[in-house]
Amino acid sequence: MQFASNSHIPTPPFYGARVVTDISLEQVYNYINPVVLFRVQWGYRRQQGMLQHEYDRFIEREVVPIYQHYKQLCMENDWLRPLVVYGYFHAQSEGDDLIIYHADAQTEWVRFTFPRQAHTEERRCITDYFASVDSIQMDVVAFQIVTIGPTITEVMQHTRTEGNEGRFLHLRGMAIETTEALEEYAHRQIRLELDIAAEDSPYILDLFHGSYQGARFRFGDAACPDLTGLAKLWRLLEPGRIGVELSDDFQLTPEGSVAAVIVPHPEARIFNVQSS
Description:
The protein is an alpha+beta fold.
């Protein structure tokens, strides 16, 4: 199924990759999902028999001050260092392949292959949201890699060695959710640059549920599972410039680094691809 044949293709402000190092941690904090942080990462769930208003009061009086403490602690000690490398590239689809072109928009640079749904009527694939090689259109794709740096991992390891499991779990939750927040922040900036942010919900909490134009697929997700594709992404973004490295088994280091493909098409949505 091809969605992109007659769609509007946004115009990026540049082609190629750029590094962003001057990101305010306070800005990134605005994109943290407190529900996930408090309940999932930190385990502050409503106990059996506790009324909702009692739980809300508990969160406000007990958990929010803990959150403010760890936010401030990470800022004062420079434990979380948001860094991003991202870029825009000429692209076309060919079946289940996404072809990335050099700046001349003619010479193939790299090619990513994505899985297609086998057990749904739509049989979706990421490439469906890009103009095909048979069309007269040249499409655009964005990629991003974000990291919060290695320091927080070192602090967490030291904390665990000291036997302070509670502090470790709180720091770990902050690291995970700050990375998620940085992903949302960077993706939001891409939508602004592509001039497709008009559909963004005014409420940041809604952004966590995809209330914006397009979709973001992490490398490693079901719709983008081939981690060997990261080696190709390395050629496009050169993430060593923000201190991110790729191990022999295609894992990103430091811990708390995430790579994604950004699909601008208005009909693009996150979907699952089951392994057959």
